[in-house]
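ok trying this again, last paste got cut off
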Amino acid sequence: MIIYSLILGMSSYAQDPVFELKPTGRDNQKFDGYRGIWFELNQKYEYGDKYSGGLGTYTTNHLPLAIYAKEADKTFFVYGGTTDSTEKYLLCMIGCYDHKTHKVSQPTIVCDKMGVKDPHDNPVIQIDDKGYIWVFVNGRGRARPGFKYRSINPYDIEKFEQITMEEMAYPQPWYIEGKGFLNLFTKYTGVRLLYFETSTDGFNWSDDHPLAAILEPGDTKGGHYQISTRNGNTVGTFFNRHPDGNVDKRTDLYYIETSDLGKTWTSVEDNPLNIPIIEVENPARVINYQEQGLNVYLCDMGFDKDGHPVCLYVTSRGHEPGPKNSPYQWKLTRWTGSDWVTSAVGDSDHNYDAGSLYLLDDKWLVVAPLVNGPQLWGAGGELAFYESADEGKTWKKIKQITNNSPRNHTYVRRPINAQDPFLYFWADGNPDKFSISKLYFGDSSGHVWQLPYEMKGKMAKPIKVVFPPENN
């Protein structure tokens, strides 16, 4: 219990950080096009930065980034934007695709990050049962605050009001109809630990409840990354762990779920769990990847037609980019109702080649940069469809979506309730050097549209992209 109290920050970290009031900057102003932010971590190795490139839809721990609202017949989406092609300064943006008119609105600046250049502060989105759009803006540790915003009007992105300012990293808010919000997030109480909070209305929130703080014997630090989703009243989350707080050694795979807005948490077999989880070996552990010497990079998760959780992720032998840590294996782990089963989807060339998972009734799809792109050994690549007709047991590439691209495509994201043609969206960028970053979306046939980089009016039609592109 002594170490448990230490890792949860019962010392100097127990004090809430004092954040200065944020200047509004250009909050609620319209913007004249869709331009993604470019970023590099500046951890350089023989084969380039640990990760870099067009990171407007980064990270996979930011969830969700887009939602289709049937009532409005629109897909609302958020991303990390930037001011122009010569800067890296972050604007937390929201856009809207109208499925009736096949046009996109000019994006709105929800939160002007006032000089922050880091897409770790990218936003996420949620919609409540009255149609109000919520944007949660990520903070970074205890240095920069997170924010919650709500639209002034339902299904409308014209103006937002700030609701909270708080310590909140990697927010993953889920709305349960008739019950309220369950927000999974991270706090840097010394290290990256998992927490959750709840609210019936989005204005009044519970205390922050610790969810996972796993330590190995002898460790003084821990940490986790997670991905989650909702299925009816159930919210499930897969997470890894960071031995002794070292994010470059992220490993293992865990799963837990709740069906009562966080009052109780259970294993996949519905056995109650003591929260927070603090032991390495516990009923939530799905796979011991540490003993295999493998890192785990989480991409996406879903529930199959029987309500069983499924996880998509990448494993490798280390954090440095390049051939020495290959193969970068895409894996899928699913619960059958009695066992966890893992299969191989394919290989790519980087730990941060992030993609999305679609669990359809008749087939399962992965949309991801599983084909090497123009910047080899950099984050991203060329996009492809991989399909499984046997619930994830075997996979095959059925279509390459992009090819002969000038810049790598990465961080392919899945909207909640995704509908054609806005079935997935992403950004491109050159991971080897500073570049422009364009934003795209695609449909189930592999057709691609670019969101207009520049807009002269309030609405515009996306640009159909034919690969190989002629003037891209």
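PB: full thing came through this time. The first helix runs from residue 2 to 7.
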